[in-house]
Amino acid sequence: GAVVSQHPSRVICKSGTSVKIECRSLDFQATTMFWYRQFPKQSLMLMATSNEGSKATYEQGVEKDKFLINHASLTLSTLTVTSAHPEDSSFYICSASLNRDYGYTFGSGTRLTVV
Amino acid sequence: AQSVSQHNHHVILSEAASLELGCNYSYGGTVNLFWYVQYPGQHLQLLLKYFSGDPLVKGIKGFEAEFIKSKFSFNLRKPSVQWSDTAEYFCAVSGGATNKLIFGTGTLLAVQP
Lengths: 115, 113
Hints:
The structure holds two protein chains of two kinds.
Chain A: E1 4-7, E2 10-13, E3 19-25, E4 32-38, E5 44-51, E6 57-58, E7 67-73, E8 76-81, E9 90-97, E10 105-106, E11 110-114
Parallel strand pairs in A: 2-11
Antiparallel strand pairs in A: 1-3, 3-8, 4-5, 4-9, 5-6, 7-8, 9-10, 9-11
Chain B: E1 3-5, E2 10-14, E3 19-21, E4 24-26, E5 31-38, E6 44-50, E7 56-58, E8 64-68, E9 73-78, E10 87-95, E11 101-103, E12 107-112
Parallel strand pairs in B: 2-12
Antiparallel strand pairs in B: 1-4, 3-9, 5-6, 5-10, 7-8, 8-9, 10-11, 10-12
């Protein structure tokens, strides 16, 4: 079955530094990848949609300059949290889709803690 | 833009009780509908999905859901829950040109032995 690999699974960084999270589709080409954020005991909030070779589309209220998304190939999308602050601490999850009939495959998530 | 609402935020049941979790969506076009489960400390797992065809969809672990287009609903059901069904359940909908998947707020199910 379709597999999405997300790394790292956990990261702790100092306030003011940047963190990059990778999302790879291992056995299929993902034309679209999605990035979500999940706060404790809450739902997944869509942050942005990225299509290979084009700029990401951000949801309302998500700072595009803080959360940089790159989707340079059909198998890799990255989310960089720039100048991280403690309030950016959260669980970040990526999802990949080949097309609308294929469904969605989720990564295992990244627990970001900013200290 | 599509949206999803789940009316039950917390549900507590005894083992062997029947389960129905409500999910309503808002979108004027063709939608795909999903139910995901998140067990404590674990990651999202797909329970079932509806793309087209038979509106009664059967998923894993004895779950099923019925798509009622006239009611914009996709309720999740299980005839007899087990303690191991304790988890959070998310309804999600995708549609439109962007194909983005939007989640409901989730329902936390606690099954008492």
